[in-house]
Amino acid sequence: MAVPKYKTSKARSRRRRSINNRLVAPQLTECGTCGNKVLPHRVCPKCGFYRGRQVLDLKDMA
């Protein structure tokens, strides 16, 4: 089994760990009907369409 020759510094180990903890901005796609930015695989909250089909009737919800 390999044994490290020198102690790994705090900066080096924290830099290595921080790569997996970074925040990632959500990937937004454009709604095909109204052009609103929407998370993928979600119904558009502005027009109520999903994949070109009306899923929510927003007139009833208002």
UniProtKB/TrEMBL annotation:
PANTHER family: 50S RIBOSOMAL PROTEIN L32 (PTHR35534), LARGE RIBOSOMAL SUBUNIT PROTEIN BL32 (PTHR35534:SF1). It comes from Marispirochaeta aestuarii. Belongs to the bacterial ribosomal protein bL32 family. GO terms for molecular function: structural constituent of ribosome. Keywords: Ribonucleoprotein, Ribosomal protein. GO terms for biological process: translation. NCBIfam families: rpmF_bact. This is Large ribosomal subunit protein bL32. GO terms for cellular component: large ribosomal subunit. Signal peptide: none annotated. Pfam families: Ribosomal_L32p.
